[in-house]
Structures are given as C-alpha cells and as structure tokens.
Amino acid sequence: MSNNINLQYLFEDAQDINPTALPDYTTLDFVSNGSHIYGEIMWPAGTFEKPHPCVIMLHGFPGTARNDDISHALCRIGCVVIVPHNRGAWGSQGKYLITNCIEDAQNLAEYAHSKEFSDKYDVDPNQIYLLGHSMGANSALNAGKNLSWIRGIIMLTPYDPTRYLNRAKETYFRSLLEEGKILQSDGIDAIYEDVVNHKDEIYHPNAFEKVKDKNLIVFCGTYDSVSPLNEMIFPLWQKLESHKTSAIQKKIELPTEHGLLGRRITVIKEIAKFIEETL
To answer: Cys-Cys with 88: which of 78, 96, 137, 237 at CB 3.0–4.6 Å?
Structure first.
C-alpha cells in the first residue's frame, strides 16, 4: 500500500489547486528501434507524494478505440500516464506489425524505468504498469513477461492473434486486419505473416512461466465476439489459476462486448484498486 495515489479522485476533481504544480501533459516523442513513437505523457498535481507510479496505456488494433477515460482517471489519482501510438499508427514512424507493437511497449517501459525518465517526471522506476486493450493487451503481456521489475500487467479483453491462424478462422482474422488500412504497413499479408512467424512467442499460454508470479489482472466480456473467453482468456488464465503465488492475480468477467462499454466505471475502479493493492 502506498500514499502516492488517492482513489478519492477517480471521479472527482481536487479542490486544492497549487498554480505552481498543476497536472498537465506534454508530447511523447520516443525513438523505438529507429522510429519515432508519438503520443502524450500526463502527470498528476504536485499535491501528490512523490515519486509517482507510471502506467503505460497501449491501444488496440488499429487504434481507433480510445481509453482516455481510464488515462485521465489514473492521472487524477496520482499516476503518470504514457499514451503512445504504435509504429505505423496515428503519425508514428515505421511500419505496423504485431511484433513491432510488442517491441515498442517493452522499449517504452524500459525508458520509463530509466533514471532519465524517473528524474524528469518524478516516477518510481519500480512502480511501472503496462495496461493494454485488445491487441494492446497482447503487447502488455508479451512485453511485460520479459521485464523482471514490472509492477503489474493490466489486460482489457486481450486479443491473442495466434488463435485464428487455422484455416477455419483465417478469413475472420484477415477481415479484422482489413480495419488496419488506416495504418502504415506493408499490408495485411505482412501483418498476418508476422504473426505466423512468431506464433510461439506470441501465443498467450506460452507466457505462463514468465508471468506466473507477476501481478496481473485481466478483464473479459461475457459477450465478447472479438476476444471470446474460451479462445482468448481461459487458456492462460486456467494455468495461472492452478499455480500458487503470492502475486495478486485477478480475472474480472463483465456482461459486455469487446470494448467493455456499459461497465467502464467498474473497470476504472478495479484497475485503480489493483494498482493500490500492488504498490
């Protein structure tokens, strides 16, 4: 438990204002494997105790679904929040690939963990969380599994792209990738083949050995047609559930579709509670 966040402000503005220490944001311009990754960095009011926890918010595919409600809520309670756009997405340089998204997430987490970043934004390098929705949750899992110091992995309706590589479902996966025409990439075939070539590394249950003792929370939708429970959630969760650990690990199922609309307030409260419990 820590005193550097305050859940009172999840949905409430602080009334005490110090004009010399206001919450604010700036542009993220981070180089990941030679490509500039753009986005924003938000920080809380100076009234919160320092150093702050840091949450890296990873969007899904292709990035049209925003999670600003979560970002602002976490900033209000005392977190520094980084919201990046993946390579090839929304003005960031480079080409979009699933493995590039994972690399970008890991590189950005390591940057947030660095002395340069922690000194500049008053961040505790040992209180860094990866939070992702859908394909962003895939990035959070597969980047976070390689970081021994990551404080927690937060997954919202995680999408495991390796589950739809068989012939019966390949057409469905490719139809999802059609939505990525707004991205800078070498096309659907390149994105698809990237998953095929790295399926063993990406497949969620294969992350078990590396995340079995990490703090982790997963949100899933009972009626999710994009990340169905049996296909995307249970294969990893059942392995975690059978393993005894002192880490905090939770699965929260909500009566929603993929975007968790209709239960966003619940999601925000549970994320904040998870962060508070794991600090």
So the answer is: 96
Cα 171 from Cα 27, distance rounded (Å): 38
3-state secondary structure of 255: coil
Q: How far apart are CA 126 and CA 4, in angstroms?
A: 13
Mean pLDDT (the chain) is 94
Cα 42 from Cα 138, distance rounded (Å): 23
Any idea of the CA torsion for 59, 218, 158, 169, to the nearest 10 degrees? -170
pLDDT digits (tens, 9 = 90+) for 200-215: 999 999 999 999 999 9
Distance (Å, rounded) from C-alpha 128 to C-alpha 113? 7
Q: What is the C-alpha separation between 240 and 140, in angstroms, rounded?
A: 17
Residue-level pLDDT at 62: 84
- Residue 251 pLDDT: 98
